[in-house]
Amino acid sequence: MKTCEINVLVLAYLGDTIYENYVRRYLIDKGIGNVNDLQSESIKYVSAKNQASFIKEMMDKDFFSSDELDIIKRARNYKTTSHPKNCDIVTYKYATGLEALIGYLELENDKERINSIMNYILGK
Q1: Of the listed 16, 62, 70, 110, which one is catalytic?
Q2: Is 67 a catalytic residue?
């Protein structure tokens, strides 16, 4: 099966772990040594609201290739009625689009592109 044929929620499932690992490493590298502080700081990056904000900004700046946009849009448009209670469905779908793209790039073994996306988000 080709990577682009994998269910976008499966891609997002994988992408979520990759994304969160990047954020955790970044915060630890910044020298934050308290777990509560790490958790508080990580919300700036891992909440659906902030993920949606990052991806919308990047889309506005034409950051993504057409293939990447296809993955994002497939995830964003995936039919689902469930979402976390702390955000609206549109926000959740944008966040899912970002996670699906990261999962897709991971399975494609495109670490360089993941680094580029995460460096943008983390302000490196």
Answers
A1: 16
A2: no
